[in-house]
Automatic annotation (TrEMBL):
Cross-referenced Pfam families: BPD_transp_2 (PF02653)
Membrane topology annotation: Multi-pass membrane protein
GO function terms (MF aspect): branched-chain amino acid transmembrane transporter activity
Name recorded for this polypeptide: ABC transporter permease
Keyword Membrane included in the entry's annotation: yes
Entry's transmembrane regions: 22-42, 48-68, 99-119, 126-146, 179-199, 230-254, 260-290, 302-322
Organism: Bradyrhizobium centrolobii
Length: 339
């Protein structure tokens, strides 16, 4: 076998080594989680419903980053920029053009896809920490760009924009928070199914081939440049939709809401949930939403230090995130069935 054939063979084996079932939960577990998400809002207060809505929104943003990093192996610290573009697209369309909130989501997705695809073009020359630094620069610059004077009429400048929260349609007897939660849940499920099918498709296999061995992927005929930029575009589009939903849920957008802190939080959520494991996106989102509150409850003066200790413990005990816990749970369940 020639050296080129060996490289191709290694690349092929790397792609096949990723089992399709590893990306999702089992059917029974998925249905149980869905049942909990459907029923839970009925028994909790509006504030808890709002937190659950934000959990789904951040879960979408973490899932988008998971497709980019876990799927194609590209690191990004700039997801907050795409989140901001999606949020402002929805806010401007709703408040200045009276566009229905539901219609703003696909528009924001298309805008962010174009933004991410175009950003991916120059990023092709970068990889590893250099790509992370380039996306870090994007995230750092975005809040300042949104404050520019010639954009102030549309974006509200430093003051931001207030977004009107929609009422339930057709006269449904439910609160605004509950309606928005179920609307977000439907969008989340649709994007989750799309993401799973994407990673199982030919394009998904190309992503994973590039992630595992870029030279082998190129030797196998994968258009590396196209699929790298496509991964950036898809990730940006999903993040933009998450930003749109976030703007509607919070009812406010402002440049300082989308700083590098948000980007780092999303990256942290991906790591805690398990890189490359899509269901872990919700677990990662729960970590970045609730753990800071827990840390503040333990010590208000040292909340940052407590959060750091909790994060260290999680990374030390489960370095592969929630995916590691899921694998251990499956193994224990398998042993119990045999016994």
């Amino acid at each position: 076998m020639s050296a080129a054939e060996e490289v191709v063979a290694e690349g092929h084996q790397a792609v096949e080594a990723v089992p399709k079932r590893a990306m999702t939960l089992g059917t029974g577990t998925s249905l149980a989680v869905l049942a909990v998400l459907l029923v839970a809002p009925v028994f909790v207060k509006n504030f808890i419903i709002f937190q659950m809505t934000m959990l789904l929104i951040y879960g979408l943003a973490v899932l988008a980053l998971n497709i980019l990093t876990g799927g194609s192996g590209q690191f990004s610290l700039g997801q907050s920029a795409f989140y901001a573009v999606g949020a402002y697209t929805t806010a401007v369309l709703m408040e200045h053009f009276n566009v229905n909130y539901a219609l703003t989501l696909p528009i924001a997705g298309v805008v962010c896809f174009a933004f991410g695809f175009l950003f991916g073009q120059p990023a092709l020359r970068l990889s590893g920490v250099y790509l992370a630094l380039a996306t870090f620069a994007l995230a750092t610059a975005m809040p300042q760009l949104l404050k520019l004077n010639f954009l102030e009429h549309w974006t509200g400048g430093v003051q931001g924009l207030v977004v009107t929260k929609p009422d339930a349609p057709f006269g449904l007897p439910i609160s605004q928070d509950m309606w928005l939660y179920y609307f977000t849940l439907v969008v989340t499920i649709a994007i989750y199914i799309f993401s799973v099918n994407l990673l199982r498709s030919r394009s998904g296999r190309a992503f994973m081939a590039i992630r595992d061995n870029e030279i082998a992927a190129s030797a196998m005929g994968v258009d590396v440049a196209l699929y790298k930029t496509l991964a950036f575009g898809v990730s940006a589009a999903i993040t933009g939709i998450a930003g749109s939903l976030g703007a509607i849920a919070v009812q406010f957008v402002a440049p300082d809401s989308y700083t590098i802190t948000l980007a780092i939080s999303l990256f942290l959520g991906m790591v805690v949930g398990g890189v490359g494991w899509l269901p872990g996106s919700i677990v990662g989102a729960a970590f970045i939403i609730f753990v800071p509150n827990i840390a503040e409850g333990i010590s208000k003066g040292l909340s940052g230090a407590v959060f750091g200790v909790l994060l260290f413990l999680v990374i030390y005990l489960v370095p592969h995130g929630a995916r590691q816990i899921a694998i251990v749970g499956q193994q224990l369940a398998g042993k119990l069935r045999k016994n």
